[in-house]
Design brief:
The complex is a heterodimer of chains A (108) and B (578). Chain A is an alpha/beta fold. With 578 residues, chain B is of the alpha+beta class. The chains are: A alpha/beta (108), B alpha+beta (578).
């Protein structure tokens, strides 16, 4: 798994690429929680996530809760088919705000 | 040689004095003690005493095994009567043997016991007789008889009888010793043959197969050879043909009938798949040819490891015990008498069959040597004791369970009263590994870094089967989640744990078997999370249950660890489209 953090339109965009699994999710979790500390709205770009398991999903849930606590917006963007399927199975597709593109997210 | 020469010197002197007698007896006694060829030594002894006491002839008679006949084993002088057989109560020699008393008969014509048969046959004329019994511990085994004193007044003297009695005693001892040695050699030979028979008998038993092979047996003979037997062998259709039998009696005859019955079963069992029919045929065969009064109790059947179903027939044998997964026992009673008791005519010659689905339980078949085996003093194991032992060791592998029962009975000092034979048919239940076609089997360590390659292997195996991409992704997720549970909860982070993953296709069902060797997990504590409660963690179990049709923990085949079995019906139409 690779990740990239950038700032676009006042929001922090975290992009993950590859498999977010038991081996890599601790990294994903740390990256996301560090990002919450930046006190900017957060967008997680999941277009290049080829696989995500429950530990990866758990990192997203934990970050969402931390962001809400800090009064920050938290949304998922361009969720890949593979990742979306897991979120649906976990019934989390309705818990997370999901946008098709970064642009759409920034407009919202 | 020096001794012989000195005996001959004494003979030529025809000595009458006591020291000569003693020397002769000493020398001949030594001869007897050192001989390896008793027949020749006896012949020499008779020849020497005949010459020494100056008789016309001498003969040595021995009682035969029945005690009813006297047979001439060696003779010397006037007539050749070796091999002659007379009734043991005939003549003077007969009387001497019967009364165990030596005698001097100076004129046979005046003795009503004189037989005369030998004279009639040989043309010799017997005038006087000197006869001494050969006896050991008061028991007569024969006699040495001398006839017609040649020198002097032609009459035997009391001192002659003393010398003859001295000789006959040494000869008797030598003969008894030789017979005992012979009996010992014979005993050794019989023992060796028994051991050979036992070896062959052991070779009739099937080879021990390690777990997860479902059938395990043990046979301990009470003596060298056994009247019990068991056998199992795999059929071409994947079922396993098995049997266990007990021949009445425990000796060589039982062992031979055991060999015959076991061979018949093995041979016929390869083509006749109905155990009831098979027992019917074997029954007829044994009834036709068996020794009267011998019979065989037997349980024969087939086990299908893919379904856990046992089909068996019971010919008068101890009821096999079925122990289900919860530990409840059911005894399967016999409906017909043992094999070899009565032939049944017509189509009814088939023995009735019972079918039982083991459902993850175990079927135990055993001989009465087990339930009647002594455990403490006069206390026997009984069926209740057997059940208790099987319960106590339920977590052990089947072979260890059987061994535990055997050692309980063998722990007492008492000799086994009967052969011990036990057979266990272990159904893996939901853990059935032999089901369907194997798609994948991999072993890996309990670390997160292994999971990527596990996913790749699973994906490859499923794609090869034409599994649609979306289902394939779901199944990869499920297996990954299940592996994570093992790594995190069973091995608790121990990276050295071992995990075995097996994928099988059973008809339209994909079966996933995940085995670990960690401490057994308390299944009741594993629950899917409440989805309304949004929080990190605990999702894996939910994902697994969401995707799979069946998820269950099965009793693992070994002592410890866990076996997770999951299945999912793959819709064939979709597979074919793909």
């Amino acid at each position: 798994m690779k990740h990239e953090i950038r700032e676009t339109g006042g929001a922090s965009v975290v992009a993950f690429e590859g498999d977010v699994d038991l081996e890599t999710s601790p990294t994903a979790r740390k990256v996301l929680l560090d990002c919450v500390g930046l006190k900017r709205p957060m967008l997680v770009d999941m277009s290049a996530v080829t696989y995500i398991d429950s530990s990866g999903v758990a990192s997203l849930v934990e970050s969402l809760q931390a962001a809400r606590k800090a009064g920050l917006n938290f949304a998922l963007v361009s969720v890949s088919e593979a990742a979306l399927r897991v979120l649906q199975l976990a019934r989390l597709d309705r818990v997370f705000t999901i946008h098709a593109t970064i642009e759409e997210a920034l407009e919202g | 040689m020096a001794e012989r020469e000195s005996v001959d010197t004494l003979l030529s002197q025809g000595g009458e004095n006591i020291s000569d007698h003693l020397e002769l007896l000493a020398l001949m006694g030594a001869d007897f003690a050192s001989t390896r060829d008793l027949e020749t030594t006896l012949a020499n002894a008779v020849d020497r005493i005949t010459r020494y006491l100056d008789a016309a002839g001498g003969a040595l008679f021995l009682l035969d095994a029945s005690g009813g006949k006297l047979r001439c084993h060696a003779c010397s002088g006037a007539t050749e009567i070796s091999g002659m057989v007379i009734d043991s109560d005939t003549g003077i020699v007969g009387r001497c043997v019967q009364e165990n008393l030596g005698e001097i008969v100076r004129d046979v014509s005046k003795d009503p016991s004189f037989h005369g048969g030998v004279d009639a046959e040989t043309g010799f004329t017997t005038r006087s007789i000197l006869c001494a019994p050969m006896s050991v511990k008061g028991e007569s085994i024969g006699a040495i008889e001398l006839v017609n004193k040649v020198g002097g007044d032609g009459l035997f003297a009391p001192s002659d009888l003393s010398v003859l009695q001295g000789l006959s005693s040494s000869a008797a001892l030598a003969i008894v010793n030789a017979r005992q040695a012979e009996a010992l050699v014979e005993q050794e030979r019989v023992k060796r043959e028994l051991e050979l028979a036992a070896e062959i008998q052991r070779s009739l038993l099937p080879e021990i197969r390690p777990e997860p092979f479902p059938i395990h047996g043990i046979n301990i003979p009470a003596r060298t050879v056994s009247g019990d037997f068991f056998d199992f062998f795999e059929m071409e259709d994947g079922t396993i043909c098995f049997n266990l039998g007990d021949v009445s009696g425990k000796g060589m005859n039982a062992a031979l009938l055991m060999a015959k019955t076991a061979s018949l079963y093995r041979c016929l069992g390869k083509t006749i798949t109905s155990p009831g029919k098979l027992l019917g045929i074997i029954n007829r065969e044994i009834c036709e040819t068996s020794t009267r009064g011998m019979f065989v109790t037997m349980v024969g059947g087939h086990f299908d490891p893919s379904s856990g179903i046992v089909r068996l027939a019971n010919a008068g044998h101890e009821p096999p015990l079925y122990r289900d997964r919860d530990g409840t026992y059911t005894a399967l009673e016999a409906e017909l008498p043992p094999l070899g008791i009565m032939p049944m005519a017509g189509p009814e010659e088939d023995f009735p069959e019972t079918e039982i689905s083991l459902e993850g339980g175990t079927l135990y078949i055993f001989t009465d040597g087990v339930t009647e085996g002594y455990i403490d003093g006069d206390e026997t194991l009984e069926v209740a004791g057997l059940k208790a032992m099987l319960d106590a060791n339920a977590d052990m592998p089947a072979a260890d369970r059987l061994n535990a029962v055997i050692s309980r009975i063998r722990k007492t000092d008492r000799a086994l009263r009967d052969d011990l034979t036990l057979l266990a048919i272990n159904d893996a239940g939901p853990a059935r590994q032999a089901v369907g076609v194997g798609l994948l089997r991999i072993n890996f360590r309990s670390v997160a870094s292994e999971l990527k390659s596990v996913r790749k292997a699973v994906k490859g195996a499923l794609e090869k089967e034409g599994c649609p991409a979306s289902l394939c992704a779901d199944l990869v997720l499920v297996i990954d989640e299940a592996c994570q549970n093992i790594i995190r909860h069973a091995y608790k982070g121990n990276a050295e744990g071992e995990i075995t993953l097996e994928l099988r296709l059973d008809g339209d069902d994909l079966v996933v078997l995940l085995r670990d060797f960690a401490e057994t997990v308390d299944v009741s504590k594993i629950k899917p999370r409440d989805l309304e409660d949004v929080r990190p963690g605990g999702l894996g179990t939910h994902l697994i249950r969401e995707i799979m049709d069946e998820v269950e923990f099965a009793p693992p085949p070994g002592k410890s660890g866990n076996l997770l079995r999951m299945s999912k019906t793959l819709e064939r139409g979709k597979l074919d489209e793909a």
